[in-house]
Write a structure and sequence with these properties.
There is one protein chain. The protein is mostly helical and about 120 residues long. The protein folds into two domains: about 1-70, 434 Repressor (Amino-terminal Domain), CATH 1.10.260; about 80-124. The chain is about 55% helix and about 5% strand. It is built from six helices and two strands; from the N terminus they run αααααββα. Helix 2 crosses helix 3. The chain is globular, with a radius of gyration of 16 Å.
Amino acid sequence: MILNRLTTLRKAKRWSLQYTADRLGIAKSTYAGYESGHRRPSLETINLLAGLYDTSTDYILGRVDHPAKDLTTESPQVMELTDLPNMELAVDGISLSEEETIQFIAFIRAKREVEINRDKQNET
C-alpha cells in the first residue's frame, strides 16, 4: 500500500482525520495509524476506504497509478448515503444534524462489523 495515497485522498476531500475516522466508524488514532504506516488496514477496511474515497482498492494498494474507479463494475441503482449532501434525513419528524448523520452511519457500520464477526464465529 502506498501510504501517502490515503493522506492525499483525504486532503483532496478536505477532511480531517477525525471526520474521516467517524465516517469509517473507527478511532481517529486507528485511521492516523493507517496514514502513517504504523497500522495496516484489513482487506475489509481497504474496501471501505476505496468506497469512501470513490477510488479502487488497486489504487490504494499501489497496483495502479490512477485513482479513478472502474465504473463498469458499479451498479447505477445504488447511491451512497454519504454522497448525498442535499438529502435531508429525519427521525420522528426532526431533521438529523450533520453530527447525528455521521453517528448514524458509524452505528450502522459498527453493527455490520458485529454481525460479520458473529457470522465468522458461527462458521467455526
